[in-house]
Amino acid sequence: MKIGMIGLGRMGSNMSRRLIKAGHSCVVFDQSSAAVSALASEGATAAASAADMVSKLPAPRVVWMMVPAAGVDPLIQTLLPKLQSGDILIDGGNSFYGDDIRREAELAPKGIRYLDVGTSGGLWGLERGYCLMIGGEDKAVQYVDPILAALAPGPSEAGKTSGTASRGYLHCGSSGAGHFVKMVHNGIEYGLMAAYAEGFALLHKASKPAVAQEASAEHAPERAVLPTTRDFKMDQIAELWRHGSVVSSWLLDLLAEQLVQNPQLDDFAGHVADSGEGRWTIEAAIETGVPVPVLATALFARFTSRGEADFANRTLSAMRLGFGGHHETATKAKS
User: Fold this and answer.
1) Is 104 considered catalytic here?
2) Is pTM, for the whole model, over 0.70?
3) What are the pLDDT digits (tens) for 120-171?
4) Assuming Cys at both sites, which of 11, 19, 243, 248 could form a disulfide with 24, CB separation 3.0 to 4.6 Å?
5) Of 42, 106, 137, 189, catalytic
6) How many CB atoms within 10 Å of residue 119?
7) Are 146 and 206 in contact (CB under 8 A)?
8) 28 and 40 in contact (C-beta within 8 Å)?
9) 3-state secondary structure 56-122
């Protein structure tokens, strides 16, 4: 098939490469001319603009957008004058599923079919393939199946179900369903990452020599009995758990790789961003009345990492000073 790809960032560029390797033709455009040129040198057709890209596609046109969520609506408005009835627009980014439902309703009267495809795979998708969660009209999904199959990892011997799920892609329902499933996927990802982070933080702290504490009202007495001899090497423990452990995972593989290079993770400031999906997951949980305390806590931990709890912590110190005369102790050096 011939497909247009707009957005040649970390994922869009490698998705184009994977499609080209599978024998598909890609017409590519990005605000970065260097990104376009790089893919053109690898077999893609370069486009000078989004409109130029559409003009180089045969009808019905298939346009895959890999741009930030805030850029999807403006891009659609740019593309609309060049699109025709029967064309298919695909949003493969991390849009809010409610926006997908709105877009589908706005585009349907013009005959333009809209698919939302939650895409997971990150930097490794070129080699491993991409897990695709799809929402939209049945016939449009069927039409682009060769594209989806090429991007997905492919058949797995460990597959537990029939159909496309064991090949790494799934039509999850009507418009918005793909991004809804991807949203929950990312919410779970937050929780898994937080669990690993907290566990390794405990190991890191426990591996430090005990420090004698003064007896005062400002310090809780230490009661934990730790092994007398302990040398918890983060990189070795991560590697150990990758082999035969029930907590082994791709996330742990990636963490182990980082710990080998930098066991103390000194290259990281620890300011953890959240791109929206975690927030939307919690909102959906509230709407449906489903308790998700782990996912919510993982999201709030990211806020804390960026200093959003600083005022609350100062408030606690102020109240302790007020009711008990408790003065803050000196800040400890970073461990």
Assistant:
1) no
2) yes
3) 998 899 999 999 999 999 999 999 999 999 999 998 766 666 689 999 999 9
4) 19
5) 189
6) 26
7) no
8) yes
9) CCCCCCEEEECCCHHHHHHHHHHHHHHCCCCCEEEECCCCCHHHHHHHHHHHHHHCCEEEEEEEECH
